[in-house]
Amino acid sequence: MSESANTKKAIADGFRTLMGKKTFEKITISDITSVCGLNRQTFYYHFQDKYDLLNWIFYNDIIDTLTSDYTINTWSDGLLKVLYVFKHNAKFYANALNTSYSDEFRQYLFTATAQLFNAILDIMMQGHKQKLDPDDQQFIAEFLSYGVSGSIINWILTGMKETPENIVMRIKNIINDSKSGTVARYIKDAIT
Known about the structure:
Helix 4 packs parallel to helix 7 and helix 5 (about 75-90) packs antiparallel against helix 9 (about 165-185). The chain has helices at about 5-20, 30-35, 40-45, 50-65, 75-90, 90-95, 100-125, 135-155, 165-185. The protein folds into two domains: about 1-45, Arc Repressor Mutant, subunit A (Orthogonal Bundle); about 50-190, Tetracycline Repressor, domain 2 (Orthogonal Bundle), CATH 1.10.357. About 75% of the residues lie in helices and about 0% in strands. It contains nine helices and no strands. By secondary structure, it is mainly alpha-helical.
Protein backbone atom coordinates (compact mmCIF):
# COMPACT_ATOMS: atom_id res chain seq x y z
CA MET A 1 0.00 0.00 0.00
CA SER A 2 1.34 3.44 -0.90
CA GLU A 3 2.13 6.08 1.70
CA SER A 4 -0.84 8.15 0.51
CA ALA A 5 -3.17 5.16 0.83
CA ASN A 6 -1.81 4.44 4.33
CA THR A 7 -2.43 8.05 5.36
CA LYS A 8 -5.98 7.99 3.98
CA LYS A 9 -6.64 4.74 5.83
CA ALA A 10 -5.27 6.22 9.07
CA ILE A 11 -7.51 9.27 8.69
CA ALA A 12 -10.51 7.04 7.93
CA ASP A 13 -9.78 4.81 10.94
CA GLY A 14 -9.54 7.88 13.20
CA PHE A 15 -12.80 9.20 11.79
CA ARG A 16 -14.52 5.86 12.38
CA THR A 17 -13.31 5.92 15.98
CA LEU A 18 -14.72 9.40 16.47
CA MET A 19 -18.07 8.47 14.91
CA GLY A 20 -18.32 5.68 17.42
CA LYS A 21 -18.36 8.36 20.13
CA LYS A 22 -19.79 11.51 18.53
CA THR A 23 -22.33 12.36 15.90
CA PHE A 24 -21.10 13.21 12.43
CA GLU A 25 -22.29 16.80 12.74
CA LYS A 26 -20.24 17.39 15.91
CA ILE A 27 -16.95 16.07 14.51
CA THR A 28 -14.51 18.71 13.34
CA ILE A 29 -11.43 18.46 11.16
CA SER A 30 -9.41 19.31 14.29
CA ASP A 31 -10.97 16.30 16.04
CA ILE A 32 -10.00 14.05 13.15
CA THR A 33 -6.43 15.30 12.86
CA SER A 34 -5.97 15.15 16.62
CA VAL A 35 -7.06 11.52 16.91
CA CYS A 36 -4.81 10.60 13.95
CA GLY A 37 -1.81 12.59 15.12
CA LEU A 38 -1.73 14.52 11.84
CA ASN A 39 -1.95 18.18 10.98
CA ARG A 40 -4.76 19.93 9.11
CA GLN A 41 -2.62 20.38 6.03
CA THR A 42 -2.16 16.62 5.74
CA PHE A 43 -5.91 16.09 6.07
CA TYR A 44 -6.66 18.67 3.36
CA TYR A 45 -3.99 17.18 1.11
CA HIS A 46 -6.04 13.95 1.02
CA PHE A 47 -9.64 15.12 1.52
CA GLN A 48 -11.60 18.29 0.81
CA ASP A 49 -13.69 18.02 3.97
CA LYS A 50 -15.32 15.47 6.25
CA TYR A 51 -18.01 14.78 3.63
CA ASP A 52 -15.32 13.84 1.12
CA LEU A 53 -13.79 11.56 3.77
CA LEU A 54 -17.15 9.93 4.45
CA ASN A 55 -17.66 9.36 0.72
CA TRP A 56 -14.21 7.80 0.48
CA ILE A 57 -15.03 5.41 3.33
CA PHE A 58 -18.38 4.45 1.80
CA TYR A 59 -16.80 3.91 -1.60
CA ASN A 60 -14.01 1.71 -0.26
CA ASP A 61 -16.17 -0.24 2.18
CA ILE A 62 -19.07 -0.81 -0.20
CA ILE A 63 -18.53 -0.28 -3.89
CA ASP A 64 -14.91 -1.31 -4.12
CA THR A 65 -15.52 -4.44 -2.04
CA LEU A 66 -18.86 -5.46 -3.49
CA THR A 67 -18.19 -4.91 -7.17
CA SER A 68 -14.78 -6.53 -7.57
CA ASP A 69 -13.95 -10.09 -8.55
CA TYR A 70 -17.33 -11.76 -8.44
CA THR A 71 -18.91 -14.53 -10.44
CA ILE A 72 -22.36 -16.08 -10.47
CA ASN A 73 -21.15 -18.46 -7.75
CA THR A 74 -19.07 -16.07 -5.62
CA TRP A 75 -21.00 -12.77 -5.56
CA SER A 76 -22.22 -13.54 -2.05
CA ASP A 77 -18.61 -13.63 -0.79
CA GLY A 78 -18.29 -9.92 -1.60
CA LEU A 79 -21.56 -9.20 0.16
CA LEU A 80 -20.36 -11.13 3.21
CA LYS A 81 -17.15 -9.06 3.27
CA VAL A 82 -19.20 -5.84 3.21
CA LEU A 83 -21.43 -7.03 6.07
CA TYR A 84 -18.34 -7.91 8.12
CA VAL A 85 -17.02 -4.39 7.52
CA PHE A 86 -20.36 -3.01 8.73
CA LYS A 87 -20.38 -5.30 11.76
CA HIS A 88 -16.78 -4.47 12.65
CA ASN A 89 -17.65 -0.76 12.42
CA ALA A 90 -21.16 -1.07 13.85
CA LYS A 91 -21.20 2.23 15.77
CA PHE A 92 -19.80 4.11 12.79
CA TYR A 93 -22.46 2.78 10.39
CA ALA A 94 -25.32 3.16 12.85
CA ASN A 95 -24.21 6.76 13.37
CA ALA A 96 -23.80 7.28 9.60
CA LEU A 97 -27.40 6.19 9.09
CA ASN A 98 -28.60 8.65 11.74
CA THR A 99 -27.02 11.74 10.18
CA SER A 100 -28.25 14.30 7.72
CA TYR A 101 -25.82 12.61 5.31
CA SER A 102 -27.41 9.15 5.53
CA ASP A 103 -28.83 9.38 2.02
CA GLU A 104 -25.27 9.17 0.70
CA PHE A 105 -24.73 5.84 2.46
CA ARG A 106 -28.06 4.52 1.22
CA GLN A 107 -27.20 5.58 -2.33
CA TYR A 108 -23.78 3.94 -2.23
CA LEU A 109 -25.29 0.68 -1.01
CA PHE A 110 -28.11 0.81 -3.58
CA THR A 111 -25.73 1.63 -6.44
CA ALA A 112 -23.29 -1.13 -5.54
CA THR A 113 -25.98 -3.79 -5.21
CA ALA A 114 -27.67 -2.67 -8.45
CA GLN A 115 -24.31 -2.98 -10.25
CA LEU A 116 -23.84 -6.40 -8.72
CA PHE A 117 -27.27 -7.64 -9.82
CA ASN A 118 -26.82 -6.21 -13.32
CA ALA A 119 -23.57 -8.15 -13.60
CA ILE A 120 -25.24 -11.32 -12.29
CA LEU A 121 -28.01 -10.93 -14.87
CA ASP A 122 -25.40 -10.47 -17.61
CA ILE A 123 -23.71 -13.69 -16.54
CA MET A 124 -27.04 -15.54 -16.35
CA MET A 125 -27.91 -14.50 -19.91
CA GLN A 126 -24.65 -15.76 -21.41
CA GLY A 127 -25.32 -18.55 -23.86
CA HIS A 128 -28.93 -17.59 -24.53
CA LYS A 129 -29.90 -16.44 -28.01
CA GLN A 130 -32.41 -13.96 -26.69
CA LYS A 131 -31.25 -11.27 -24.31
CA LEU A 132 -33.05 -9.36 -21.63
CA ASP A 133 -34.42 -6.02 -22.70
CA PRO A 134 -32.11 -3.43 -21.08
CA ASP A 135 -35.08 -1.74 -19.38
CA ASP A 136 -36.27 -5.07 -17.96
CA GLN A 137 -32.76 -5.90 -16.75
CA GLN A 138 -32.39 -2.51 -15.07
CA PHE A 139 -35.79 -2.88 -13.41
CA ILE A 140 -34.93 -6.36 -12.08
CA ALA A 141 -31.52 -5.22 -10.80
CA GLU A 142 -33.01 -2.17 -9.08
CA PHE A 143 -35.88 -4.19 -7.60
CA LEU A 144 -33.45 -6.67 -6.09
CA SER A 145 -31.17 -3.85 -4.99
CA TYR A 146 -33.95 -2.05 -3.11
CA GLY A 147 -34.79 -5.25 -1.26
CA VAL A 148 -31.20 -6.14 -0.40
CA SER A 149 -30.04 -2.65 0.52
CA GLY A 150 -33.22 -2.06 2.54
CA SER A 151 -32.70 -5.32 4.42
CA ILE A 152 -29.07 -4.44 5.16
CA ILE A 153 -29.99 -0.95 6.36
CA ASN A 154 -32.68 -2.40 8.62
CA TRP A 155 -30.13 -4.90 9.95
CA ILE A 156 -27.74 -2.06 10.81
CA LEU A 157 -30.43 0.14 12.40
CA THR A 158 -31.77 -2.71 14.56
CA GLY A 159 -28.38 -3.52 16.07
CA MET A 160 -27.02 -6.21 13.71
CA LYS A 161 -28.41 -9.01 15.85
CA GLU A 162 -28.25 -11.64 13.08
CA THR A 163 -24.88 -12.83 11.90
CA PRO A 164 -23.58 -11.59 8.54
CA GLU A 165 -23.60 -15.22 7.38
CA ASN A 166 -27.32 -15.56 8.14
CA ILE A 167 -28.19 -12.33 6.31
CA VAL A 168 -26.14 -13.36 3.26
CA MET A 169 -27.64 -16.88 3.29
CA ARG A 170 -31.16 -15.43 3.24
CA ILE A 171 -30.33 -13.01 0.43
CA LYS A 172 -28.53 -15.73 -1.53
CA ASN A 173 -31.49 -18.10 -1.19
CA ILE A 174 -33.88 -15.47 -2.55
CA ILE A 175 -31.57 -14.58 -5.43
CA ASN A 176 -30.91 -18.22 -6.31
CA ASP A 177 -34.62 -19.04 -6.19
CA SER A 178 -35.32 -16.05 -8.45
CA LYS A 179 -32.71 -16.90 -11.10
CA SER A 180 -34.55 -19.58 -13.01
CA GLY A 181 -37.86 -17.76 -12.82
CA THR A 182 -36.32 -14.57 -14.14
CA VAL A 183 -34.60 -16.33 -17.00
CA ALA A 184 -37.71 -18.34 -17.89
CA ARG A 185 -39.97 -15.29 -17.83
CA TYR A 186 -37.83 -13.08 -20.00
CA ILE A 187 -35.93 -15.52 -22.18
CA LYS A 188 -38.09 -17.92 -24.18
CA ASP A 189 -35.23 -20.21 -25.23
CA ALA A 190 -34.13 -20.70 -21.62
CA ILE A 191 -36.88 -23.21 -20.92
CA THR A 192 -36.63 -25.12 -24.19
